[in-house]
Predict the structure of DER reductase.
Amino acid sequence: QCPGIEPLCLDLADWDATEAAVGAAGPFELLVNNAAVAMLQPFLEVTRAALQRSLDVNLQAVLHVSQIVARQMITQGVPGAIVNVSSQASQRALRDHAVYCSTKSALDMLSKVMAMELGPHKIRVNTVNPTVVMTDMGRVNWSDPQKSAAMINRIPLGKFAEVDDVVNSILFLLSDKSAMTTGSSLMVDGGFLVS
């Protein structure tokens, strides 16, 4: 669909492979960190493997890929924009989401620090924080009608987000229309956090 886009297929938890692949790509002006895992377990049953995998993908990969891309932007002397896809779960506790909520909260704070440190280089950093999005992962984790009804009842707009809802918000934050926006979290939650 998008000529000129060359996908890189790699395990973002693999630090060296990511460094080699992303470091050889570019030049970059824009970055969207969207990779994530949601391994849902009750707090008392959280496994070390689930915690490590979630930290590797949801936090470490964002930090690492952003370092590589930001360094290239700085070397090129071009302004840039980074959008990290977070979640409403960064700001509201959800049952069985101890690890997911924690990694997304950490991502929000990482993004604020990135905005502060990269701002002098004219690189803006923001997060998009959606509610449940009807991706494959969203359908798997929210397919139980009883579970999904309880969540939808807390969303004033009465529905989960579609992919385009999130994409349009990301496009805004990448564009010059948000030229004075950095260190912010854009809620795409249908009002969940105000309910």
Q: What stands out?
A: The mean pLDDT is 94. Residues 48-76 form the longest helix (29 residues). The CA atoms of residues 41 and 47 lie 8 Å apart.
